[in-house]
């Protein structure tokens, strides 16, 4: 099936198997490997991307379902060599350890801050509910998102 979508501002068209997930399409066809596949059941959140501005778990969407959509992946967050404030927050506050969950955490954080520019710690923790990190204990992830909120609101 022929699909076309805009990914990080660039248009892509491919003939794909109807059963390929959006995560597989991004990683294997478009070669954007920042979107991680951790569980294939939408439980871990490592595959989170934005589809038409909303955070979604790309392992449970078929690529054909988002035909004609605008997709933003972790690769589309930075502006050239300038990190997005959320990425900067993760760097400054050591919001990552192994890094496997980080792309999904960053994409989820962007969605949290889009919907609530000044979230409380409890609101951040609730917003991250569908993303698992087995390394950090979330404390520095929350601090990273608070950093980004301050920077974005300045």
What's a quick, concise take on this entry?
By secondary structure, the chain is an alpha+beta fold. It has 5 helices and 5 strands, in the order E-E-H-E-E-E-H-H-H-H.
* Rg, Å, rounded: 15 Å
Q: How many separate domains make up the residues?
A: 2
**Beta-strand level of the residues, as a percent range?**
5-15%
Note the gap between the termini: 46 Å
What's the architecture of the largest domain in CATH terms?
Roll
User: Main sheet, how many strands, which sense, barrel?
Assistant: 5 strands, mixed
Quaternary = single chain
What is the approximate shape? globular
| Class per helix and strand makeup | alpha+beta
Order of helices and strands: EEHEEEHHHH
Q: Could you tell me the number of beta strands?
A: 5
Strands of the widest sheet, in order across it, are 2-1-5-3-4
CATH topology assignment of the largest domain: Ubiquitin-like (UB roll)
Calculate the mean pLDDT score and round it.
96
Fourth-tier CATH superfamily name of the largest domain: Beta-grasp domain
Helix content: 25-40%
Q: Tell me the number of helical segments per DSSP (H or I, 4 or more residues long).
A: 5
Text of the CATH class of the largest domain: Alpha Beta
Low-confidence stretches: none
């Amino acid at each position: 099936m022929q699909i076309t979508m805009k990914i990080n501002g660039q248009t892509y068209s491919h003939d794909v198997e109807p059963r390929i997930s959006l995560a597989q399409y991004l990683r294997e066809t478009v070669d954007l490997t920042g979107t991680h596949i951790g569980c294939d059941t939408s439980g871990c959140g490592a595959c989170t991307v934005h589809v038409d501005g909303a955070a979604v778990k790309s392992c449970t969407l078929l690529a054909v379902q988002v035909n004609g959509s605008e997709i933003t992946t972790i690769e589309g967050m930075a502006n050239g060599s300038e990190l997005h404030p959320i990425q900067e927050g993760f760097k400054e506050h050591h919001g990552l350890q192994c890094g496997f969950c980080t792309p999904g955490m960053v994409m989820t954080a962007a969605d949290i801050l889009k919907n609530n520019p000044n979230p409380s710690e409890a609101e951040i923790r609730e917003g991250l509910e569908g993303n698992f990190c087995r390394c950090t204990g979330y404390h520095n992830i929350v601090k990273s998102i608070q950093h980004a909120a301050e920077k974005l609101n300045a």
